[in-house]
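We now fix the convention by which a protein and its fold are recorded. The integers have meaning only within a learned vocabulary of local backbone shapes. A record is reproduced here so that you can trace the correspondence yourselves:
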Amino acid sequence: MITEIEQLENGTVTDRVIEIKAVYKTTKHTVQPSFDPSINWWAGVERLSDRDKEDANYYVTVGNKVDPHLNTKLVLKDGLRLDLSQEVDRITWEWLKHCPELAMSYQEAQSSKSLFYVNIEGRESEIKNKKAKEVLEAMQLVVNDPASNHVNRVLLLGFDMEGENPSTIEEYLLEKAQKDPKAIMRVYRDKSMKLNLLYLRAKKARIVTEDADTKVVKFGSTILGLSDESAIAFLQSNEDILELLERDVDPEYYNNKKSEAKIVEKKPTPIEAALAAKKAKEDK
């Protein structure tokens, strides 16, 4: 996937301008090319011979220990713009994008120690809008869900709130939807959550137990695994054990499911239907 920055670099957009924004508006910071030990040279800086330097209109100066003040540097500040259609700015960008002080997005700057980031017009708004829509969608899932289901939703999020006031449980889910909408969507939409809930209820009821020392997870005398993840994986691939667990955790649901299965008439396979038709014809 081509990023917005790559589009700017490659000239696939009309405006080839890189805009630098400061995380804190008044910040100013002087940067120089970063030395890369893996190539034993400065990242993004072209190696030029003395003859090449004579022929060049502009080049980056690095490694001058006699007169270090002659080495290339740049003062970063909020609103700084580099026009990549211009040679000096294009050469500057090649080393600047490797500096740890500059992140490629606002999100990246927040999760690193970068003081500056590349601002693409409209990109930050798109990200914020996407997050706002996710929050709204997650909150609607909670609001439209019967209050009787909320305890189980919270249990899937790792908390046991059984016995709490329903409004308190709903408040927790709505707050979670604002902070982590993807977690709420996963609880409501991931098909594997039904099994996870059954497993958590079994642990809560001590039907499934975990040895504190060995971490062995057991259902009766059956070893399910050495962690919650491995135990759930075991149940997924062993339907007979899963059915027994269903029976012990929720007998009423299990009995109803069995009764419904008996009522539903089994449809004959195409071969069975053909044989039945043949037999009926012979009987005539």
About this structure: The chain is about 50% helix and 15% strand. Residues 191-278 form a domain with the Rec A Protein; domain 2 fold (CATH 3.30.250.10). The two ends are 69 Å apart (CA to CA).
